Amino acid sequence: QVQLVESGGGLVQPGGSLRLSCEASGFNLEDYAIGWFRQAPGKEREGVSCISSRGLHTYYTDSVQGRFFISRDNANSKNTVYLQMNSLKPEDTAVYYCAAQRGVTTMSLCVAQIDFASRGQGTQVTVSS
């Protein structure tokens, strides 16, 4: 069964950090570009950051540039993509989920409204004092 599972969300104070993980099972994640998306209540889905299949290309939306860092571990069958989130702000509060697709650029995965081959259920990130 093809599945993506996120972990690492939680409640953090403004200025704090969290690291999200996206682990794949049932398929080889290294064949896919992976994106982290977020959706807050009443708002549209936003592509936060995306990484190419081999990790050579990344994309960040302007609001997280310099604060969030995406990485992937294709080695040793870890099949995991990470999102390190630093200097968190209240406006970063949302449900974050990861999604995978093949044959797309990081820009098209993050910005265009394309279909995903697979996506996770999401993990809640709340930034509040």
Task: Please give a structural write-up.
By secondary structure, this protein is mainly β. Helices cover 5% and strands 46% of the residues. The protein is built from one helix and eleven strands. The strands form two sheets. Strands 2, 4, 5, 6, 9, 10 and 11 form a seven-stranded mixed beta sheet that branches. It has a four-stranded antiparallel beta sheet with strand order 1-3-8-7, with no helix packed on it.
Largest sheet geometry: 7 strands, mixed
Unreliable sequence segments: none
C-alpha-based Rg, rounded = 14 Å
Strand coverage percent: over 45%
Helical residue percent?
under 10%
Mean pLDDT comes to: 93
Spell the H/E element sequence: EEEEEEEEEHEE
Kindly, what is the distance between the CA atoms of the first and last residues, rounded to a whole number of angstroms? 40 Å
Helix/strand-derived class? mainly beta
How many distinct beta strands? 11
Q: Please give the count of helices.
A: 1
Shape: globular
Quick recap of the structure?
This protein has one helix at 106-111; strands at residues 3-7, 10-12, 18-25, 33-39, 46-51, 58-60, 68-73, 80-85, 94-101, 118-119, 123-127.
